Input
Amino acid sequence: MSVQQVLIAGQWRDANQSGTFRADNPATREALPDEFPVSTWADCDEALTAAVTAAAQLRQKSGAQIAAFLEDYAARIESRADDLVATAHAETALPKAPRLADVELPRTTNQLRLGAAAARSGSWAQATIDTQAGIRSCFGPLGPVCVFGPNNFPFAFGSISGGDFAAAIAAGNPVIAKANSSHPGTTRIFAEAAQAASRATEMPAATVQLLYRTSHDDGERLVADPRTGATGYTGSRGAGLKLKQAADTAGKPIYLELSSTNPVVILPGALEERLDAIADDFAGSCLMGTGQFCTNPGIVVLLAGDRTEQFIKAVGERFEQAPVGTLLSKSVAASLESNLSALQEAGAELVVGGGAGTGQGYCRANTLLRTRGETFLANAAALQTEAFGNASLFVVADDIHQAAQLLSHLEGNLTGCIYSHTAGQDDDDYATVADPLRQRVGRLLNDKMPTGVAVSSAMNHGGPYPSTGHPGFTAVGMPAALVRFAMLQSYDNVRPARLPALLQDKNPTGGTWRLVDGQWTTADVG
Output
């Protein structure tokens, strides 16, 4: 079988390759038939050169024209839904329905359309006009953006279809997509739809380009290249930090989603009131998708007592009774096994699971561990090892003050949650733990598990390091996500006709929000 082609400068062509690879079917552990190239630097170099040309051309396009591309692309994705779902299912073992067809694919097209709405509105650019000083500013495109997608969301976080892609394009930048090696065939179908949409809406040829895999050295060189504007990366901490070091050394922005244990605090009042319901919530959340969500609850903080012991027993029973799901790849299964061993070496004890899984393909047993608050405080770093998959660690604190203390030792996380008594009987305890938790998470939840990230303009899918590389930005939520891939451009005493449309006296859309002399308005200036 011939090797699949890469998409560079608007053309599918054979790669300059150093080798090839094939994806596995995680449910059967067998290699899939399609063969994909490992590109050399020559492909990266050509893609960057083409992207620079595309970036200059995109700067001449209006927000409405960019929106038309994103909307056309979303429609073409929907027209190829069957192919996308079937291919992603084979490459990831994620269920066709409801996960891929009914949840992730509609979320993906919704994100693209929200990006289109942001581009058409222009309000995301935060146009600011000071008529007295004669200075005007707004956010504008940064340049070529490289997007590295993760293995666990082939659609909604994919390098050529997900939130980073939608935000980068909506901000007016071309994208060089680096496919995840777990689902290259899925990414290829997206690229075909994107290229067709680009041609139909008269976008620059290199608006969207696709490489399947590069060497680690070339990946680091790509994010650090002077032609690269910024990078979006979702994946493992180890690989992400190497890319970050390369980008930081070159002074290039890189936005990372790396790891998160998403702590959940369950107060005694909540267990007194609804123990079984919370056990159901937790087991369902932790085991959903075989635990392969970036917001999976990996650490649960409880206070010592009879109710806590009953709760741990109830969750353990649910873990033992629940079916064992398939993990995304051989490497995910190996990493989960290794990290569970690391947690036990650090002082965690098995409650249930820990061994080989009885499910289909790559799998590990549903695993629950526990440790004491004192042990956690003595070895906090090691006991925060992320066990990505169907596993979680319970930390039993002596009292509410020790619970607050151990929360202050947490690394940065995407989410944190507190379960409390619905009538407020433990409000004092809530106040004790809420502040230290709030400072270590991007999104704070009450009385609901963190699994899942709603596509909302108010969403923060980010948080302090190491959950992400920067605590001030979100990977989900339009229009806030666009600003990551933009630069603040100021114009001082520039003649009116030479200003960007957003900064001229006349509001270019009639509805764009602009800050004019300290007041947000959609009116024309003057």
Notes: The chain has 14 helices and 23 strands. The mean pLDDT is 97.
